[in-house]
Design brief:
Distance between the termini: 37 Å
Order of helices and strands: EEEHEEHEHHHHEHEHEEHH
Strand order of the largest sheet: 6-7-8-3-9-10
Radius of gyration: 18 Å
Largest sheet: 6 strands, mixed
Oligomer: single chain
Strand content: 25-35%
């Protein structure tokens, strides 16, 4: 579905992505793991059109057509079905939960279609329906993550770019969020996941890539990387 080849990205004078190549197949969860500063978030920002690449290729195949992500503005990327759920949630704190969800549906047409999409989110996260009229800023950290993920799902993504969903959450909430992410695969959503909790990411990932200093240094299935001694030592806290 997604093919990235020799992607080079600069932020100012800093060469952040140094020729990375990877792929994500339709219907799978792919994980990018690595330390802070490895270039993971920059990768997603580039794929969603918020940062421009210096060179390389990033293309998505949808319905028999190939879409060049590096030559499209962000709004067209979203309309094509590539939706970014950013690090830090980025919800609108002064708006209600329902209003935040409605903003995620701006690419949809028709009130009935929007209402149905929001109802599906409420089925997935019942607490959001209970909090629908409350300001989003009053939610707990875990509830805000549910809202951010729900807002992305309202857009009906074909490819979901998911950045650090466990950031700042309690362990029980992390498990709950990852259960939902794993369930999205069963709903036909393809996911590219960035996550510092490497153990959780590798547990649900069909394929995974390890990034270091703007390069991909290891790749394999989630299970293979979870058993790799280098990964176990560097990211899973296992002594060699």
């Amino acid at each position: 579905m997604l093919e990235v080849e020799e992607l080079h990205v600069f932020r100012g004078a800093t060469h952040v992505l140094k020729g990375i190549s990877f792929e994500v197949q339709t219907g799978e969860i792919a994980a990018l793991v690595g330390a802070n500063g490895a270039g993971k978030s920059t990768t997603l920002l580039t794929l969603s059109g918020l940062i421009r690449a210096r060179s390389g290729r990033a293309a998505v195949r949808l319905g028999g057509a190939t879409i060049d992500l590096l030559r499209m503005p962000p709004e067209r990327i979203v309309r094509a079905g590539i939706v970014h759920c950013p690090e830090g949630r980025q919800i609108f704190h002064s708006l209600t939960v329902a209003e935040n969800l409605a903003l995620g549906a701006y690419t949809r047409t028709g009130a009935a279609e929007v209402a149905h999409a929001i109802e599906e989110v409420y089925e997935l996260f019942p607490v959001l329906e209970q909090r629908a009229r409350l300001a989003a800023g009053t939610l707990s950290g875990g509830e805000q993550m549910m809202l951010a993920l729900g807002r992305a799902l309202v857009a009906s993504p074909k490819l979901l770019l998911l950045d650090e969903p466990s950031l700042g959450l309690a362990p029980k909430m992390v498990e709950a969020i990852f259960d939902v992410i794993a369930g999205l695969k069963d709903r036909g959503v393809t996911i590219l996941l960035i996550e510092q909790n490497a153990a959780m990411a590798l547990e649900i990932a069909d394929r995974a890539y390890v990034m270091e200093n703007g390069r991909i240094v290891l790749s394999g299935t989630g299970a293979e990387l979870a058993e790799n001694d280098e990964v176990r030592h560097a990211y899973l806290g296992v002594a060699l």
